[in-house]
Amino acid sequence: MIEISRLCKSFKGVPVLQGVDLEAAESERLVIIGGSGCGKSVLLRHIAGLLKPDSGSVKIDGQELTTLSERELNPIRKKIGVLFQGAALFDSLDVFHNVAFSLLEERSVNESEIRDRVEEALDVVGMNGQEHKKPGELSGGMRKRVGLARAIIHRPRIMLYDEPTTGLDPQIADSINRLILKMSNHFHVTSMVVTHDMVSAYLVGSRIAMLHQGKILVSGSPDEIQRNINPVVQHFIRGISEERDQELFGTNGNPSGATQVAKD
Ligand SMILES: Nc1ncnc2c1ncn2[C@@H]1O[C@H](COP(=O)(O)OP(=O)(O)OP(=O)(O)O)[C@@H](O)[C@H]1O
Ligand SMILES: [Mg+2]
What we know:
- The chain is an alpha/beta fold.
- It has helices at residues 40-47, 70-77, 95-106, 111-124, 140-151, 170-187, 198-204, 222-227, 231-238, 242-249, 256-263, and strands at residues 2-11, 14-24, 29-33, 55-60, 63-64, 80-83, 158-162, 190-194, 207-212, 215-220.
């Protein structure tokens, strides 16, 4: 469903993606982990057709995105729903208009269908009856739900989630994770989830890939990732800083300490 090969992107001469190879099969839930600033959001934006790479290929359902014009991209973008980092709602619009936004722009859909589709989307995320609230009146978890309702309004076949649980308390984060699983199990969407939250990664991921220094360092089932002996992977998934590694194991930059942790 998603095929990325040798994807490269630099900003002002600074390389961010340096040959990313990644695939996601239909209905798969692929989680992308990696340190802050390593290019996870940039990668998602390429898949959503919102950024053009310097080189490399992004195929959705067999179709190459990178050579398409803005107009040609439109029908493909409808297959892809994106829950942006921070939900990215319009503060001046109420929930109804935030969710309906892209349908209202389209003009081909009539008013009663728009109402039905918004109701359906709000129903999926458990936000019915909140249509008239403004984003400022909602909690972080509710905002994410509205962002998700907006993302599924075109009944996408692919869902991209950028840090869906960041900043939420563990229970609300769990309810968002359940929604991601629901989208996958009930609607068979292919999901790509960018997260720092390892609880969420293990729960929602059928596969986890780690982006590091512009490339996919490892990819495997949650179990395989937990057992991976690469110290970079172990440090990340266990949240061990370099300073703590030195304190604990006196490795002085020697990564064997992390390998020790992996064996515990
Ligand atoms: N439009 C842009 N113009 C210039 N630089 C950019 C742009 N978008 C991203 N970058 C740079 O690319 C790098 C990767 O950014 P990105 O947002 O993908 O990181 P991330 O892995 O999502 O981090 P976080 O976990 O903090 O969200 C950063 O150094 C960022 O400053
Ligand atoms: Mg990001």
